Amino acid sequence: MMRLPRFRYFAPRTISEALKIKSDSGPESAFVAGGTDLYPNMKRRQQTPRVVIGLSRIPALQRLRFGSEGVTLGAGLLLSRVETDGRIRRDYPGLAHAISEISTPPLRNMGTLGGNLLLDTRCNYYDQNYEWRQAINFCMKKDGEICWVAPGSPRCLAVQSADSVPVLIALNARALLASREGEREIAVEDLYRNDGIDYVTKRPDELLTEVRLPSPDGWRGSYRKLRRRGSFDFPVLSVGAAIRRDGEKVAGARLVLGGVASAPLRLTRSEEALLGRPLDETSIAGAAEAAAGPSRPMDNTDFSFLWRKEMTAKFVALALRDLA
Ligand SMILES: Cc1cc2nc3c(=O)[nH]c(=O)nc-3n(C[C@H](O)[C@H](O)[C@H](O)COP(=O)(O)OP(=O)(O)OC[C@H]3O[C@@H](n4cnc5c(N)ncnc54)[C@H](O)[C@@H]3O)c2cc1C
Ligand code: SF4
Predict the structure, then answer these.
(1) Ligand 2 near 118 CB (within 6 A)
(2) Which percentage of the chain shows pLDDT scores above 70?
(3) Closest-lying ligand to the alpha carbon of 143?
(4) pTM higher than 0.70, yes or no?
């Protein structure tokens, strides 16, 4: 049985209290929301914070507010709460669907939206217990020197695998980050960096407090995910799509790939292939074909990477057909 290492646990009731504890505890501390990612990582000694700051007792992180500008989702909202909310299902069905594809119902009753956005990147050589990783002399992401996927690579290629992220980016979501220095709002798209170790632009002292979605205003989103088991599995290729039509023609398109790099990937050429055209089999085929080039999965998750690349066009087409 894998056991957690020893750590001190704090359970603040307010955002400012959480930020103060974080600043007082320094780099050897971590926030935890549902713990469905952090605690398994701690058991495998991939993350070893000496201080853990629980967020689940902070009511301000659990608000769900609808307004004329859109919806504000507290980072501490349970995934199951977001997935089952009637207004989210009506106005953002693509997001509700993406969240319903995350892990299992019990884990969605623990895991939060914020924890999903900040999910650790994944790799076959990293998602192993300590002894397994020790037997290969570890890797660059934790405790080692080399990348076993691409030994010549100066950077870790672990994969962005959070299901909510591609569709949130497609829907133009924004993230609110708080620190003791104040707040800043950034596009969710700008939260990620294509580096398997340093994979978010959020500073360690910053708390993700809210995710903001603009009102649908004609935009409709969808999500498709490739995984081995239909019941539950992380995505090894995923597509978030959002389309806005003007009459019969596509007036706006945003397409995002997940599961193929350390950051989500915008498919700008595919987006351009749709603009000004009806969303039919011809335009969908053009957008799908344009997606295959930029999709360059590495050999570090389930399934052959060549097959995952081949599947890119098919999954882009599936996500677009959901909107046609
Ligand atoms: C068996 C299993 C299957 C899974 N399958 C999937 C899947 O298919 N798809 C998928 O996307 N995920 C999957 N997950 C991962 C996980 O359950 C979800 O990603 C979940 O949303 C994580 O949320 P959490 O609140 O539990 O995160 P936590 O574990 O609490 O935190 C995750 C990370 O985010 C940080 N963090 C959390 N909240 C904040 C905040 N507000 N501000 C700053 N930092 C914060 C933590 O410090 C930590 O680094 C799976 C997990 C398991 C165990
Ligand atoms: S991509 Fe390379 S460095 Fe990153 S986790 Fe995998 S083996 Fe380690």
Answers:
(1) no
(2) 100
(3) 2
(4) yes
Tokens linked to 136 = 């290969």
Tell me if 79 CB under 6 Å of ligand 1: yes
Give how far Cα 131 sits from Cα of 1, 41, 46, 122, Å: 12, 14, 12, 18
Among the listed residues 324, 319, 321, the one whose alpha carbon sits nearest the alpha carbon of residue 98: 319
- Which residue out of 73, 95, 100, 107 has the highest number of ligand 1 atoms within 8 Å of its CB and is therefore the one to mutate? 107
Residue nearest to atom 1 of ligand 2 (CA): 157
How many residues are present in the chain?
324
Ligand 1 centroid from CA 33, angstroms: 8
CA distances from 233 to 52, 109, 155 (A): 27, 16, 26
d(CA 225, CA 220): 17
Contact predicate 172/254, CB 8 Å: yes
Q: Rounded to an integer, what distance in angstroms lies between the CA atom of residue 308 and that of residue 225?
A: 11
Question: What's at 44, amino acid-wise?
Answer: R
Expressed in angstroms and rounded, the spacing between residue 142 Cα and the centre of ligand 2 is 9
138 ligand 2 Cβ < 6 A: no
Angle at 296 between CA 162 and CA 309, to 5 degrees: 85
Tokens 């995984």 map to which residue? 227
- What is the identity of the amino acid at 294? P
Residue 145 CB: number of other CB atoms within 10 A?
8
Under 8 Å between Cβ of 179 and 3 = no
d(CA 245, CA 243): 7
List, for residues 134-179, the tens digit of each pLDDT value.
999 999 999 999 999 999 999 999 999 999 999 999 999 999 999 9
Whose Cα sits closest to atom 15 in ligand 1?
37
Band (pLDDT 50/70/90 cuts) for residue 184 is: very high
